[in-house]
Amino acid sequence: MDSGKFVLRNCLYLELPFSVRIAKFIPNKNWFVCGSDDKFIRVYDYNTSEKVKDFEAHEDFIRCLAVHPTSPFVLSSSDDKLIKLWDWEKDWVCTRIFEGHSHYVMQTAFNPKDINTFASASLDGTVKVWNIDSSAEKFTWEAHSKGINCVNYFMEDDKLYLITGSDDYTAKVWDDESKSCLKILEGHTQNVTAACIHPQLPIIITASEDETVRIWDASTYRLDDTLNYGLERVWGIAYKKVFIQTSERVKSVDFHPTEPWILASLYSGTVCIWNYHSQTIEKSFKVTDSPVRTAKFIPNKNWFVCGSDDKFIRVYDYKTSEKVKDFEAHEDFIRCLAVHPASPFVLSSSDDKLIKLWDWEKDWVCTRIFEGHSHYVMQTAFSPKDINTFASASLDGTVKVWNIDSSTEKLTWEAHSKGINCVNYFMVDDKLYLITGSDDYTAKVWDDETKSCMKILEGHTQNVTAACIHPELPIIITVSEDETVRIWDASTYRLEDTLNYGLERVWGIAYKKGSNEVAFGCDKGSVLVKIGSS
Protein backbone atom coordinates (compact mmCIF):
# COMPACT_ATOMS: atom_id res chain seq x y z
CA MET A 1 0.00 0.00 0.00
CA ASP A 2 1.32 3.42 -0.93
CA SER A 3 0.93 4.78 2.58
CA GLY A 4 3.17 2.07 4.04
CA LYS A 5 0.29 0.93 6.24
CA PHE A 6 -0.48 -2.74 5.82
CA VAL A 7 -3.91 -3.81 7.13
CA LEU A 8 -4.67 -7.37 8.18
CA ARG A 9 -8.21 -8.46 9.05
CA ASN A 10 -9.11 -4.79 9.44
CA CYS A 11 -7.56 -4.75 12.92
CA LEU A 12 -3.78 -5.23 12.74
CA TYR A 13 -1.86 -2.14 11.62
CA LEU A 14 1.82 -2.45 10.77
CA GLU A 15 3.28 1.01 10.41
CA LEU A 16 6.03 0.50 7.86
CA PRO A 17 8.33 3.34 6.81
CA PHE A 18 7.86 2.96 3.04
CA SER A 19 5.34 1.75 0.48
CA VAL A 20 4.56 -1.97 0.65
CA ARG A 21 4.34 -3.29 -2.91
CA ILE A 22 3.80 -6.97 -2.17
CA ALA A 23 2.50 -9.28 0.58
CA LYS A 24 1.85 -13.02 0.58
CA PHE A 25 0.41 -15.53 3.04
CA ILE A 26 2.51 -18.49 4.20
CA PRO A 27 -0.46 -20.33 5.73
CA ASN A 28 1.29 -23.48 6.95
CA LYS A 29 3.39 -21.21 9.23
CA ASN A 30 0.57 -18.77 10.09
CA TRP A 31 2.76 -16.05 8.58
CA PHE A 32 2.60 -13.41 5.97
CA VAL A 33 5.67 -11.96 4.27
CA CYS A 34 5.85 -8.48 2.75
CA GLY A 35 8.37 -6.46 0.76
CA SER A 36 8.67 -2.69 0.64
CA ASP A 37 10.45 0.27 -0.88
CA ASP A 38 12.90 0.45 2.04
CA LYS A 39 14.40 -2.78 0.55
CA PHE A 40 13.35 -4.86 3.56
CA ILE A 41 11.47 -8.14 3.75
CA ARG A 42 9.36 -8.52 6.90
CA VAL A 43 7.64 -11.62 8.23
CA TYR A 44 4.74 -11.54 10.73
CA ASP A 45 2.75 -14.17 12.57
CA TYR A 46 -0.82 -13.20 11.74
CA ASN A 47 -2.26 -15.10 14.74
CA THR A 48 -0.11 -13.39 17.38
CA SER A 49 0.60 -10.16 15.43
CA GLU A 50 4.29 -10.59 16.31
CA LYS A 51 7.13 -9.87 13.93
CA VAL A 52 9.02 -13.07 13.08
CA LYS A 53 11.85 -11.57 11.04
CA ASP A 54 12.96 -8.49 9.15
CA PHE A 55 16.05 -8.02 7.02
CA GLU A 56 17.40 -5.90 4.19
CA ALA A 57 16.97 -8.06 1.10
CA HIS A 58 17.83 -5.85 -1.90
CA GLU A 59 19.54 -2.62 -2.90
CA ASP A 60 16.37 -1.11 -4.38
CA PHE A 61 12.56 -1.36 -4.19
CA ILE A 62 11.13 -4.88 -3.77
CA ARG A 63 8.53 -5.55 -6.46
CA CYS A 64 7.36 -9.11 -5.91
CA LEU A 65 7.45 -12.10 -3.57
CA ALA A 66 6.54 -15.66 -4.57
CA VAL A 67 6.13 -18.49 -2.05
CA HIS A 68 7.27 -21.94 -3.18
CA PRO A 69 4.31 -24.37 -3.16
CA THR A 70 6.04 -27.09 -1.10
CA SER A 71 9.55 -26.06 0.02
CA PRO A 72 10.47 -23.41 2.65
CA PHE A 73 11.47 -20.90 -0.02
CA VAL A 74 10.45 -17.37 -0.99
CA LEU A 75 11.57 -15.63 -4.18
CA SER A 76 12.00 -11.86 -4.14
CA SER A 77 12.48 -9.60 -7.16
CA SER A 78 13.60 -6.00 -7.17
CA ASP A 79 14.43 -2.81 -9.00
CA ASP A 80 18.08 -3.79 -8.46
CA LYS A 81 17.43 -6.25 -11.37
CA LEU A 82 18.03 -9.28 -9.16
CA ILE A 83 15.94 -12.24 -8.04
CA LYS A 84 16.85 -13.89 -4.74
CA LEU A 85 15.85 -17.18 -3.14
CA TRP A 86 15.35 -17.19 0.66
CA ASP A 87 15.09 -20.26 2.93
CA TRP A 88 13.02 -19.65 6.07
CA GLU A 89 14.15 -22.92 7.66
CA LYS A 90 17.71 -21.50 7.57
CA ASP A 91 16.67 -18.25 9.26
CA TRP A 92 15.92 -16.60 5.94
CA VAL A 93 19.39 -16.98 4.46
CA CYS A 94 19.74 -16.14 0.76
CA THR A 95 20.62 -19.45 -0.93
CA ARG A 96 20.77 -18.24 -4.55
CA ILE A 97 20.84 -15.06 -6.65
CA PHE A 98 19.48 -15.00 -10.21
CA GLU A 99 21.04 -12.31 -12.36
CA GLY A 100 20.36 -11.54 -16.02
CA HIS A 101 17.63 -8.93 -16.43
CA SER A 102 18.70 -5.46 -17.53
CA HIS A 103 15.78 -3.57 -15.91
CA TYR A 104 13.47 -3.86 -12.90
CA VAL A 105 12.16 -7.39 -12.22
CA MET A 106 8.43 -6.92 -11.70
CA GLN A 107 7.12 -10.41 -10.99
CA THR A 108 8.08 -14.06 -10.57
CA ALA A 109 5.79 -17.10 -10.74
CA PHE A 110 6.38 -20.77 -10.04
CA ASN A 111 5.57 -23.36 -12.71
CA PRO A 112 2.69 -25.67 -11.62
CA LYS A 113 4.06 -28.52 -13.76
CA ASP A 114 7.64 -28.32 -12.43
CA ILE A 115 7.52 -26.49 -9.11
CA ASN A 116 11.27 -25.86 -9.01
CA THR A 117 11.06 -23.87 -12.24
CA PHE A 118 9.89 -20.26 -12.26
CA ALA A 119 9.42 -17.42 -14.71
CA SER A 120 10.35 -13.76 -14.23
CA ALA A 121 8.97 -10.65 -15.96
CA SER A 122 11.00 -7.47 -16.36
CA LEU A 123 10.73 -3.95 -17.70
CA ASP A 124 13.48 -4.98 -20.15
CA GLY A 125 10.66 -6.56 -22.20
CA THR A 126 11.69 -10.15 -21.54
CA VAL A 127 10.43 -13.17 -19.66
CA LYS A 128 13.15 -15.48 -18.37
CA VAL A 129 12.74 -19.05 -17.15
CA TRP A 130 14.93 -20.39 -14.32
CA ASN A 131 15.38 -23.38 -12.03
CA ILE A 132 15.96 -22.78 -8.32
CA ASP A 133 18.94 -25.17 -8.41
CA SER A 134 20.95 -23.01 -10.84
CA SER A 135 21.73 -19.32 -11.22
CA ALA A 136 21.83 -19.69 -15.00
CA GLU A 137 18.66 -18.86 -16.94
CA LYS A 138 17.10 -21.70 -18.96
CA PHE A 139 15.33 -19.57 -21.58
CA THR A 140 14.53 -15.98 -22.52
CA TRP A 141 11.42 -14.73 -24.33
CA GLU A 142 11.54 -11.37 -26.11
CA ALA A 143 7.90 -11.13 -25.16
CA HIS A 144 6.80 -7.49 -25.57
CA SER A 145 7.97 -4.29 -27.22
CA LYS A 146 7.85 -2.50 -23.86
CA GLY A 147 8.29 -3.40 -20.21
CA ILE A 148 6.51 -6.44 -18.79
CA ASN A 149 4.71 -5.99 -15.47
CA CYS A 150 3.39 -9.48 -14.82
CA VAL A 151 3.70 -13.15 -15.67
CA ASN A 152 1.67 -16.17 -14.57
CA TYR A 153 1.57 -19.83 -15.50
CA PHE A 154 -1.57 -21.88 -16.05
CA MET A 155 -2.47 -25.43 -17.09
CA GLU A 156 -5.09 -26.60 -19.55
CA ASP A 157 -5.53 -30.29 -20.46
CA ASP A 158 -2.07 -31.03 -19.02
CA LYS A 159 -0.49 -28.41 -21.28
CA LEU A 160 1.45 -25.50 -19.84
CA TYR A 161 0.88 -21.87 -20.81
CA LEU A 162 1.95 -18.42 -19.62
CA ILE A 163 0.21 -15.06 -19.66
CA THR A 164 2.05 -11.72 -19.61
CA GLY A 165 0.95 -8.09 -19.27
CA SER A 166 2.91 -5.11 -20.53
CA ASP A 167 3.39 -1.37 -20.82
CA ASP A 168 2.52 -1.83 -24.52
CA TYR A 169 -1.11 -1.99 -23.27
CA THR A 170 -1.52 -5.69 -24.20
CA ALA A 171 -1.60 -9.07 -22.53
CA LYS A 172 -0.27 -12.13 -24.34
CA VAL A 173 -0.92 -15.86 -23.98
CA TRP A 174 2.08 -18.13 -24.63
CA ASP A 175 2.49 -21.85 -25.30
CA ASP A 176 5.32 -22.97 -23.01
CA GLU A 177 6.30 -25.93 -25.18
CA SER A 178 6.46 -24.19 -28.56
CA LYS A 179 7.43 -20.80 -27.06
CA SER A 180 4.89 -19.22 -29.44
CA CYS A 181 2.38 -16.44 -28.78
CA LEU A 182 -1.14 -17.86 -29.07
CA LYS A 183 -3.08 -14.64 -28.63
CA ILE A 184 -2.62 -10.91 -28.06
CA LEU A 185 -5.36 -9.42 -25.87
CA GLU A 186 -5.85 -5.83 -26.98
CA GLY A 187 -8.17 -3.15 -25.61
CA HIS A 188 -6.62 -1.61 -22.51
CA THR A 189 -5.60 2.02 -22.98
CA GLN A 190 -2.83 2.06 -20.36
CA ASN A 191 -0.22 -0.32 -18.96
CA VAL A 192 -1.47 -3.83 -18.14
CA THR A 193 -0.45 -4.34 -14.52
CA ALA A 194 -1.76 -7.83 -13.71
CA ALA A 195 -3.12 -10.85 -15.60
CA CYS A 196 -4.20 -14.37 -14.70
CA ILE A 197 -6.38 -17.30 -15.67
CA HIS A 198 -9.09 -18.09 -13.14
CA PRO A 199 -8.57 -21.66 -11.82
CA GLN A 200 -12.30 -22.47 -11.46
CA LEU A 201 -13.83 -20.45 -14.31
CA PRO A 202 -13.05 -20.38 -18.04
CA ILE A 203 -11.94 -16.74 -17.96
CA ILE A 204 -8.83 -14.61 -18.30
CA ILE A 205 -8.65 -11.51 -16.09
CA THR A 206 -6.50 -8.49 -16.91
CA ALA A 207 -6.09 -5.28 -14.90
CA SER A 208 -4.67 -1.96 -16.00
CA GLU A 209 -3.69 1.58 -15.12
CA ASP A 210 -6.62 2.61 -17.36
CA GLU A 211 -8.72 1.91 -14.21
CA THR A 212 -10.47 -1.14 -15.70
CA VAL A 213 -10.59 -4.88 -15.18
CA ARG A 214 -11.27 -6.88 -18.33
CA ILE A 215 -12.79 -10.37 -18.43
CA TRP A 216 -11.97 -12.54 -21.47
CA ASP A 217 -13.27 -15.94 -22.54
CA ALA A 218 -10.34 -18.33 -22.02
CA SER A 219 -11.27 -20.46 -25.03
CA THR A 220 -12.23 -17.89 -27.66
CA TYR A 221 -10.29 -14.92 -26.18
CA ARG A 222 -13.42 -12.82 -26.70
CA LEU A 223 -13.77 -9.79 -24.42
CA ASP A 224 -16.78 -10.59 -22.24
CA ASP A 225 -16.83 -7.71 -19.78
CA THR A 226 -15.10 -4.48 -18.77
CA LEU A 227 -15.38 -3.47 -15.10
CA ASN A 228 -14.65 -0.15 -13.44
CA TYR A 229 -15.24 0.16 -9.69
CA GLY A 230 -14.28 3.81 -9.45
CA LEU A 231 -11.10 3.06 -7.49
CA GLU A 232 -8.74 4.48 -10.14
CA ARG A 233 -5.73 2.45 -11.31
CA VAL A 234 -5.84 -1.31 -10.78
CA TRP A 235 -2.59 -2.88 -9.58
CA GLY A 236 -3.41 -6.45 -8.69
CA ILE A 237 -5.89 -9.26 -8.97
CA ALA A 238 -6.98 -11.75 -6.30
CA TYR A 239 -9.85 -14.11 -7.00
CA LYS A 240 -12.06 -15.87 -4.50
CA LYS A 241 -12.81 -19.53 -4.90
CA VAL A 242 -16.17 -19.98 -6.61
CA PHE A 243 -18.26 -23.04 -5.81
CA ILE A 244 -20.14 -24.43 -8.79
CA GLN A 245 -22.41 -27.48 -8.49
CA THR A 246 -23.74 -28.73 -11.80
CA SER A 247 -27.12 -30.43 -11.76
CA GLU A 248 -30.54 -30.43 -13.33
CA ARG A 249 -32.35 -27.08 -13.44
CA VAL A 250 -32.28 -25.32 -10.06
CA LYS A 251 -35.43 -23.28 -9.45
CA SER A 252 -34.58 -21.87 -6.02
CA VAL A 253 -31.68 -21.61 -3.57
CA ASP A 254 -31.55 -20.82 0.14
CA PHE A 255 -28.70 -20.46 2.65
CA HIS A 256 -28.65 -22.13 6.04
CA PRO A 257 -27.89 -19.38 8.60
CA THR A 258 -25.20 -21.30 10.51
CA GLU A 259 -24.11 -24.33 8.45
CA PRO A 260 -22.13 -24.04 5.16
CA TRP A 261 -25.14 -25.31 3.24
CA ILE A 262 -27.13 -24.27 0.21
CA LEU A 263 -30.62 -25.73 -0.19
CA ALA A 264 -31.46 -26.21 -3.87
CA SER A 265 -34.82 -27.23 -5.33
CA LEU A 266 -34.56 -28.97 -8.68
CA TYR A 267 -36.85 -29.32 -11.66
CA SER A 268 -36.22 -33.08 -11.49
CA GLY A 269 -38.19 -33.38 -8.23
CA THR A 270 -35.14 -33.49 -5.98
CA VAL A 271 -34.09 -31.21 -3.13
CA CYS A 272 -30.35 -31.13 -2.37
CA ILE A 273 -28.28 -29.73 0.46
CA TRP A 274 -24.87 -28.75 -0.91
CA ASN A 275 -21.93 -28.16 1.41
CA TYR A 276 -19.96 -25.32 -0.17
CA HIS A 277 -16.97 -25.76 2.16
CA SER A 278 -16.37 -29.42 1.29
CA GLN A 279 -17.93 -28.98 -2.17
CA THR A 280 -20.01 -32.13 -1.69
CA ILE A 281 -23.68 -33.04 -1.54
CA GLU A 282 -24.54 -33.17 2.16
CA LYS A 283 -27.94 -34.79 1.56
CA SER A 284 -30.30 -35.41 -1.32
CA PHE A 285 -34.07 -35.94 -1.10
CA LYS A 286 -36.12 -37.31 -4.01
CA VAL A 287 -39.38 -35.73 -2.90
CA THR A 288 -41.53 -36.10 -6.04
CA ASP A 289 -41.46 -36.75 -9.77
CA SER A 290 -42.69 -33.20 -10.42
CA PRO A 291 -40.59 -30.01 -10.54
CA VAL A 292 -39.83 -28.52 -7.12
CA ARG A 293 -39.98 -24.76 -7.65
CA THR A 294 -39.28 -23.60 -4.11
CA ALA A 295 -37.58 -24.81 -0.91
CA LYS A 296 -36.74 -23.02 2.32
CA PHE A 297 -34.89 -23.87 5.51
CA ILE A 298 -36.76 -23.67 8.84
CA PRO A 299 -33.55 -23.85 10.90
CA ASN A 300 -35.04 -23.60 14.39
CA LYS A 301 -36.91 -26.86 13.67
CA ASN A 302 -34.10 -28.54 11.66
CA TRP A 303 -36.54 -28.70 8.77
CA PHE A 304 -36.82 -27.65 5.20
CA VAL A 305 -40.13 -27.11 3.43
CA CYS A 306 -40.67 -27.41 -0.31
CA GLY A 307 -43.47 -26.88 -2.81
CA SER A 308 -43.87 -28.56 -6.18
CA ASP A 309 -45.90 -28.85 -9.36
CA ASP A 310 -47.89 -31.78 -7.95
CA LYS A 311 -49.51 -29.13 -5.68
CA PHE A 312 -48.03 -30.62 -2.51
CA ILE A 313 -46.07 -29.04 0.30
CA ARG A 314 -43.58 -31.40 1.94
CA VAL A 315 -41.61 -30.95 5.14
CA TYR A 316 -38.44 -32.89 5.98
CA ASP A 317 -36.14 -33.09 8.98
CA TYR A 318 -32.75 -32.51 7.36
CA LYS A 319 -30.86 -34.11 10.26
CA THR A 320 -32.77 -37.42 10.33
CA SER A 321 -33.83 -37.30 6.64
CA GLU A 322 -37.37 -38.22 7.75
CA LYS A 323 -40.49 -36.73 6.22
CA VAL A 324 -42.34 -34.63 8.80
CA LYS A 325 -45.46 -33.82 6.78
CA ASP A 326 -46.89 -33.75 3.27
CA PHE A 327 -50.23 -32.40 2.13
CA GLU A 328 -51.97 -31.07 -0.96
CA ALA A 329 -51.85 -27.30 -0.55
CA HIS A 330 -53.14 -25.82 -3.81
CA GLU A 331 -55.05 -26.65 -6.98
CA ASP A 332 -52.13 -25.76 -9.28
CA PHE A 333 -48.32 -25.44 -9.28
CA ILE A 334 -46.75 -24.00 -6.12
CA ARG A 335 -44.45 -21.11 -7.04
CA CYS A 336 -43.08 -19.78 -3.75
CA LEU A 337 -42.81 -20.40 -0.03
CA ALA A 338 -41.94 -17.72 2.53
CA VAL A 339 -41.14 -18.52 6.18
CA HIS A 340 -42.33 -16.01 8.79
CA PRO A 341 -39.33 -14.54 10.66
CA ALA A 342 -40.81 -15.06 14.14
CA SER A 343 -44.07 -17.03 14.10
CA PRO A 344 -44.68 -20.69 13.08
CA PHE A 345 -46.10 -19.68 9.71
CA VAL A 346 -45.32 -20.41 6.08
CA LEU A 347 -46.88 -18.56 3.14
CA SER A 348 -47.43 -20.43 -0.10
CA SER A 349 -48.36 -18.92 -3.47
CA SER A 350 -49.59 -20.72 -6.54
CA ASP A 351 -50.73 -20.72 -10.14
CA ASP A 352 -54.25 -21.10 -8.70
CA LYS A 353 -53.90 -17.33 -7.97
CA LEU A 354 -54.13 -17.86 -4.22
CA ILE A 355 -51.83 -17.23 -1.28
CA LYS A 356 -52.25 -19.41 1.81
CA LEU A 357 -50.96 -19.15 5.37
CA TRP A 358 -50.01 -22.40 7.12
CA ASP A 359 -49.38 -22.89 10.86
CA TRP A 360 -46.94 -25.73 11.62
CA GLU A 361 -47.77 -25.66 15.35
CA LYS A 362 -51.35 -26.60 14.38
CA ASP A 363 -50.22 -29.53 12.23
CA TRP A 364 -49.93 -27.34 9.13
CA VAL A 365 -53.54 -26.21 9.08
CA CYS A 366 -54.36 -23.39 6.63
CA THR A 367 -55.33 -20.43 8.81
CA ARG A 368 -55.99 -17.87 6.07
CA ILE A 369 -56.42 -17.56 2.29
CA PHE A 370 -55.52 -14.35 0.44
CA GLU A 371 -57.42 -13.90 -2.81
CA GLY A 372 -57.22 -11.01 -5.27
CA HIS A 373 -54.65 -11.64 -7.97
CA SER A 374 -55.94 -12.45 -11.47
CA HIS A 375 -52.91 -14.49 -12.59
CA TYR A 376 -50.21 -16.75 -11.11
CA VAL A 377 -48.74 -15.51 -7.82
CA MET A 378 -44.98 -15.83 -8.30
CA GLN A 379 -43.51 -14.65 -5.00
CA THR A 380 -44.31 -13.37 -1.53
CA ALA A 381 -42.00 -11.53 0.87
CA PHE A 382 -42.41 -10.41 4.49
CA SER A 383 -41.76 -6.78 5.41
CA PRO A 384 -38.74 -6.30 7.71
CA LYS A 385 -40.41 -3.26 9.28
CA ASP A 386 -43.73 -4.94 10.09
CA ILE A 387 -43.17 -8.69 9.99
CA ASN A 388 -46.91 -9.45 9.82
CA THR A 389 -47.16 -7.52 6.55
CA PHE A 390 -46.14 -9.11 3.27
CA ALA A 391 -46.09 -8.27 -0.43
CA SER A 392 -47.04 -10.54 -3.33
CA ALA A 393 -45.97 -10.38 -6.98
CA SER A 394 -48.12 -11.74 -9.79
CA LEU A 395 -48.10 -12.23 -13.54
CA ASP A 396 -51.12 -9.89 -13.56
CA GLY A 397 -48.56 -7.05 -13.38
CA THR A 398 -49.41 -6.02 -9.83
CA VAL A 399 -47.84 -6.09 -6.39
CA LYS A 400 -50.30 -6.40 -3.53
CA VAL A 401 -49.64 -5.72 0.15
CA TRP A 402 -51.40 -7.75 2.85
CA ASN A 403 -51.44 -8.37 6.60
CA ILE A 404 -51.55 -11.95 7.84
CA ASP A 405 -54.46 -11.03 10.15
CA SER A 406 -56.81 -10.12 7.28
CA SER A 407 -57.74 -11.64 3.93
CA THR A 408 -58.30 -8.16 2.50
CA GLU A 409 -55.45 -6.57 0.60
CA LYS A 410 -54.09 -3.28 1.98
CA LEU A 411 -52.75 -1.87 -1.27
CA THR A 412 -52.23 -2.70 -4.95
CA TRP A 413 -49.42 -1.38 -7.15
CA GLU A 414 -49.81 -1.46 -10.92
CA ALA A 415 -46.07 -1.99 -10.98
CA HIS A 416 -45.12 -3.29 -14.45
CA SER A 417 -46.58 -3.51 -17.95
CA LYS A 418 -46.05 -7.27 -17.95
CA GLY A 419 -46.00 -10.06 -15.41
CA ILE A 420 -43.97 -9.68 -12.20
CA ASN A 421 -41.80 -12.61 -11.18
CA CYS A 422 -40.34 -11.38 -7.92
CA VAL A 423 -40.68 -8.91 -5.08
CA ASN A 424 -38.45 -8.21 -2.08
CA TYR A 425 -38.38 -5.63 0.71
CA PHE A 426 -35.29 -3.84 1.98
CA MET A 427 -34.43 -1.08 4.46
CA VAL A 428 -32.14 1.94 4.03
CA ASP A 429 -31.74 4.40 6.93
CA ASP A 430 -34.96 3.14 8.55
CA LYS A 431 -36.89 3.71 5.30
CA LEU A 432 -38.69 0.84 3.62
CA TYR A 433 -38.37 0.03 -0.09
CA LEU A 434 -39.33 -2.76 -2.45
CA ILE A 435 -37.69 -4.15 -5.55
CA THR A 436 -39.59 -5.96 -8.32
CA GLY A 437 -38.51 -7.87 -11.43
CA SER A 438 -40.66 -8.41 -14.48
CA ASP A 439 -41.24 -10.01 -17.87
CA ASP A 440 -40.84 -6.48 -19.28
CA TYR A 441 -37.06 -7.13 -18.81
CA THR A 442 -36.74 -4.48 -16.06
CA ALA A 443 -36.39 -4.31 -12.30
CA LYS A 444 -37.89 -1.40 -10.36
CA VAL A 445 -37.12 0.12 -6.97
CA TRP A 446 -40.13 1.48 -5.04
CA ASP A 447 -40.52 3.79 -2.05
CA ASP A 448 -42.98 2.02 0.27
CA GLU A 449 -44.14 5.24 1.91
CA THR A 450 -44.84 7.31 -1.22
CA LYS A 451 -45.63 4.29 -3.42
CA SER A 452 -43.49 5.92 -6.13
CA CYS A 453 -40.98 4.25 -8.44
CA MET A 454 -37.49 5.46 -7.52
CA LYS A 455 -35.61 3.83 -10.39
CA ILE A 456 -36.07 1.52 -13.36
CA LEU A 457 -33.09 -0.80 -13.86
CA GLU A 458 -32.82 -1.52 -17.57
CA GLY A 459 -30.39 -3.75 -19.44
CA HIS A 460 -31.54 -7.34 -19.22
CA THR A 461 -32.67 -8.79 -22.56
CA GLN A 462 -35.07 -11.38 -21.15
CA ASN A 463 -37.42 -11.76 -18.18
CA VAL A 464 -36.03 -10.68 -14.81
CA THR A 465 -36.60 -13.70 -12.58
CA ALA A 466 -35.21 -12.55 -9.21
CA ALA A 467 -33.98 -9.33 -7.61
CA CYS A 468 -32.75 -8.28 -4.18
CA ILE A 469 -30.64 -5.81 -2.22
CA HIS A 470 -27.68 -7.43 -0.50
CA PRO A 471 -28.00 -6.81 3.28
CA GLU A 472 -24.23 -6.43 3.87
CA LEU A 473 -23.06 -4.82 0.62
CA PRO A 474 -24.25 -1.63 -1.14
CA ILE A 475 -25.43 -3.52 -4.20
CA ILE A 476 -28.59 -4.56 -5.99
CA ILE A 477 -28.54 -7.98 -7.66
CA THR A 478 -30.82 -8.94 -10.54
CA VAL A 479 -30.92 -12.21 -12.49
CA SER A 480 -32.62 -13.11 -15.71
CA GLU A 481 -33.50 -15.67 -18.34
CA ASP A 482 -30.89 -13.88 -20.48
CA GLU A 483 -28.38 -16.05 -18.51
CA THR A 484 -26.78 -13.10 -16.71
CA VAL A 485 -26.45 -11.74 -13.19
CA ARG A 486 -26.26 -7.96 -12.98
CA ILE A 487 -24.74 -6.03 -10.09
CA TRP A 488 -25.91 -2.43 -9.55
CA ASP A 489 -24.73 0.28 -7.16
CA ALA A 490 -27.52 0.60 -4.58
CA SER A 491 -26.98 4.36 -4.21
CA THR A 492 -26.41 5.53 -7.79
CA TYR A 493 -28.17 2.60 -9.53
CA ARG A 494 -25.21 2.43 -11.93
CA LEU A 495 -24.61 -0.97 -13.51
CA GLU A 496 -21.32 -2.18 -11.99
CA ASP A 497 -20.97 -5.66 -13.41
CA THR A 498 -22.56 -8.30 -15.62
CA LEU A 499 -21.76 -11.92 -14.76
CA ASN A 500 -22.34 -15.07 -16.79
CA TYR A 501 -21.28 -18.38 -15.27
CA GLY A 502 -22.21 -20.50 -18.30
CA LEU A 503 -25.10 -22.24 -16.51
CA GLU A 504 -27.77 -20.82 -18.86
CA ARG A 505 -30.93 -19.18 -17.47
CA VAL A 506 -30.78 -17.88 -13.89
CA TRP A 507 -33.85 -18.45 -11.71
CA GLY A 508 -33.03 -17.65 -8.11
CA ILE A 509 -30.87 -15.66 -5.69
CA ALA A 510 -29.99 -16.26 -2.06
CA TYR A 511 -27.73 -14.26 0.23
CA LYS A 512 -26.34 -15.07 3.65
CA LYS A 513 -26.76 -12.45 6.36
CA GLY A 514 -23.48 -11.39 7.91
CA SER A 515 -21.60 -12.60 4.86
CA ASN A 516 -20.63 -11.47 1.36
CA GLU A 517 -21.66 -14.82 -0.14
CA VAL A 518 -24.37 -14.98 -2.78
CA ALA A 519 -25.83 -18.08 -4.43
CA PHE A 520 -27.61 -18.37 -7.76
CA GLY A 521 -29.79 -21.17 -9.13
CA CYS A 522 -29.58 -21.80 -12.86
CA ASP A 523 -30.65 -24.20 -15.61
CA LYS A 524 -27.46 -26.21 -15.26
CA GLY A 525 -26.74 -25.95 -11.55
CA SER A 526 -25.87 -23.55 -8.75
CA VAL A 527 -23.02 -21.15 -8.21
CA LEU A 528 -21.73 -19.50 -5.03
CA VAL A 529 -19.69 -16.32 -5.28
CA LYS A 530 -18.05 -14.04 -2.75
CA ILE A 531 -18.47 -10.40 -3.64
CA GLY A 532 -15.91 -7.92 -2.35
CA SER A 533 -13.36 -8.52 0.38
CA SER A 534 -13.79 -11.13 3.08
UniProtKB/TrEMBL annotation:
Location of the protein in the cell: Cytoplasmic vesicle membrane
Start-end of each WD repeat: 55-87, 98-140, 141-184, 185-226, 285-326, 327-359, 370-412, 413-456, 457-498
InterPro entries, alphabetized: Coatomer_complex_subunit, WD40/YVTN_repeat-like_dom_sf, WD40_PAC1, WD40_repeat_CS, WD40_repeat_dom_sf, WD40_rpt
Classification via CDD domains: WD40 (cd00200)
Database matches in SUPFAM superfamilies: WD40 repeat-like
Primary localisation category: membrane
One annotated GO biological process: endoplasmic reticulum to Golgi vesicle-mediated transport
Taxonomy, superkingdom: Eukaryota
One cellular component (GO) term of this entry: COPI vesicle coat
Keyword Repeat: yes
UniProt keywords, alphabetically: Cytoplasmic vesicle, Repeat, WD repeat
Known function: The coatomer is a cytosolic protein complex that binds to dilysine motifs and reversibly associates with Golgi non-clathrin-coated vesicles, which further mediate biosynthetic protein transport from the ER, via the Golgi up to the trans Golgi network. Coatomer complex is required for budding from Golgi membranes, and is essential for the retrograde Golgi-to-ER transport of dilysine-tagged proteins.
Protein's recorded name: Beta'-coat protein
